[in-house]
Amino acid sequence: MTTADDVVRETRTADAATGTANARSGTAGPPAGTAERHGPSGRGGALRARGGARADGSGHADAVVLAVDGGGSKTDVVAIGLDGSLVAHARGPGTNPQSRGWSATGPVLDEVRARVLAEIGTREVRTTHVYLAGLDLDDELVAAQAALAHWAEDGGAPSVLDNDLFALLRAGTLSPDAAAVVCGTGINALAVRADGATVRYPAIGDVSGDWGGGAYLGNRALWYAARAEDGRGSTTALEDAVPRSLGFRSVREVTEALHFGRLDPGAVGRLCPVLFDVAGAGDDVARSVVERQAEEIVVMASVALERLDLGGAGSAVPVVLGGGVLAARHPLLVDPVVAGFAARVPGAVPTWVTDPPVLGAGLAALESVGAGPEALDRYRAAVRAREFASTAAPIT
Q: What are the Cα distances from residue 261, in Å, to 101, 254, 257, 264?
C-alpha cells in the first residue's frame, strides 16, 4: 500500500545543486483564479527599483544582499554575503499589510531591517528582496512600493517586492512549472508556468471565497466548542480542551473574556494545535474540520494548475506546501492532501517545505546578483543549521 511518505517529497532532498534558479519575482494579482501571461521582463508586476545590483555579482567583496520575509505571525530579515554566508538576522512581529495596514506594518519592517543594517555597518547592500503576506492585488503592490520607498535613503529600496508565496515557491523548487500553497496564519495559493503565465487569488478572506489557515481553524475550534457547551451542536472534546488550553474553566468564560477585551483575540489562533490534538485523539467534530482544510488546500492548488493546463497524467509538477499548519505535517492533514492531489491532479507532486520562508527569499536575492551554486548551498546550509534568534547578531 502506498503511503503519504512514499509520494511526498521533502525539499531537503529535492534541492537542485546546479545553475541559477528562475527566481520568482512575482505577479501583480490578476483577477481571482485567472491566468496572466507576462513578457520576458519577469513574472507579472512585481515591483523593481530602478538601478539595482549588477547581474555578475561583482563589486566589494564584503557586499551583502538583504532578504525579507513577512507573514502573519513573524518577520525575518537577513543579510547574506555574496558567498552565501549568513551575516546577520533579525526577527520581529508579523507584517501583513492587508490585515494590519501600513501604519502598523511599516514601522515593524523599518525596525527589524534597521537592526540588521546596524550589524552590517558600512557594508554595501547590493539588492533587497521583500516578500510579504497580503500583497495580492495591484493596488497593494503599489502601496507597498510607496511605503518602503524611503529605504532608498538607507541601504536601498526593494529591488523585488511581492507576495511571500514566491519565497515559499523558490524554497521548494526550481521547476518553471509549479504551484504553491501556504497555510499558516491564513491561506493562499498560486501556480506558475514556464512561459510566464501565472494564476493567483486575491486571498482577502471570506469576501474572496477563502477557507482556512491557522487563525480560521482556531476560530472553528472555539465555535464548535461553544455550540457543544450550550447544546446547539454535537458533543466534542473541544468543549473541554479549548478553555483548558487558554486557562479558563468553560467556553463561556473564554467567550466573555474575548468580548470584554480581557483576552487577546490573537489567542484564538493558538487554538489551531488544540484542534489537531483533539482530532488526533479521534474526535469526529475536530477531524471533520481538519478534513475540510485538506480539501481546500487541494482545491486551491488544483484549480490554479488546471487553469494553466498543468499536472496531467504522465507529468510531474511540484506543489510546494508550506506555512505553519502544513509544515507541521500532521498525518490527518498530510494523508488526505496527498490522496486529494492524486485523485484530481495526477501529475502533482506534493513537496513539503519545513525550512523558514526566508530561505527562499535569500536564495532569490543571491541569484539576482549572480551567486553560483556554492553560495546558494552555503546559505541553505546556514539557514538549516541555525535556530533563528529574536534579535539581530553578527554570525561568525
A: 21, 11, 6, 7
Taking the alpha carbons of 223, 227, 233, 234 in that order, is the dihedral positive or negative?
Answer: positive
Rg (CA), the chain: 21
The contacts of residue 396 (CB under 8 Å, 6+ apart) are none
Contact between 106 and 151 under an 8 Å Cβ cutoff? The reply is: no
d(CA 190, CA 182): 9
* SS3 at position 7: helix
Strand 160-163: give its sheet, edge to edge. Answer: 86-93, 74-81, 64-70, 125-132, 160-163
Q: Which three cell numbers stand for residue 335?
A: 494523508
**How far is residue 203's CA from residue 375's CA, in Å, rounded to a whole number?**
34
Residue with cell 485523485: 343
Beta-carbon contacts of residue 231 (< 8 Å; ≥ 6 apart): none
Q: What are phi and psi of 127, to 5 degrees?
A: -160, 155
89/205 Cα distance (integer angstroms): 31
Of 302, 355, 344, 43, which Cα lies nearest the Cα of 179?
A: 302
The per-residue pLDDT string of the chain (396 residues; one tens digit each, 9 = 90 and over) reads 434 444 444 443 334 333 333 333 333 334 444 444 333 223 334 543 433 434 344 456 799 999 999 988 899 999 999 999 999 999 999 999 988 999 999 999 999 999 999 999 999 999 999 999 999 999 999 999 999 999 999 889 999 999 999 999 999 999 999 999 999 989 999 999 999 999 999 998 899 999 999 999 999 999 999 999 999 999 999 999 999 999 999 999 999 999 999 999 999 999 999 999 999 999 999 999 999 999 999 999 999 999 999 999 999 999 999 999 999 999 999 999 999 999 999 999 999 998 988 999 999 999 999 999 999 999 999 999 876 543 333 333
Upper half-sphere CA count for residue 64 (Cβ side, 13 Å): 23
Distance CA 363, CA 375 (A): 9
User: 345 and 306 in contact (C-beta within 8 Å)?
Assistant: yes
pTM of the predicted structure, to 2 decimals: 0.80
* The three three-digit cell numbers of residue 124, written as one number: 554595501
Q: Minimal CA–CA distance to 351: which of 168, 163, 134?
A: 168
